[in-house]
Amino acid sequence: xxxxxxxxxxxxxxxxxxxxxxVDTGAFYSLVPADFLASLGVRPRWREELEIADGGVILRSVxxxxxxxxxxxxxxxxxxxxPGDATVLGCYALExxxxxxDPRSKRLRRPKLIPLIRATPxxxx
Length: 125
Hints:
With 125 residues, this protein is mainly β. The chain has a single domain, classed as Acid Proteases (Cathepsin D, subunit A, domain 1, Beta Barrel). It is 10% helix and 42% strand. The protein contains two helices and nine strands, in the order βββαββββαββ. Strands 1, 2, 3, 4, 5, 6 and 7 form a seven-stranded mixed sheet that branches.
């Protein structure tokens, strides 16, 4: 398991608070305690059904916040977690920060290359 301590803020310039989360490359959204997000002024935007690791479905509020790690920042989606929910750093935040999990060291790192598909423009007859 990989854990990371990242900072969160309501926007790119707002007050930042630190939180240690489990890094889950299989999770789309990040899951952060609702009271932590509320203390930053982050507000829910919509509610969504989410599938959890055991196959169950939960209904949670989702909003947007900024995540900060080692000098990089990105806006990302955050799920407002209930007491007892895990705290998770999801893949949307990782990609926004341009990070991956090193399979050997189990630490976050910047990828050597960023994957991209080179497309050839379609020819019009």
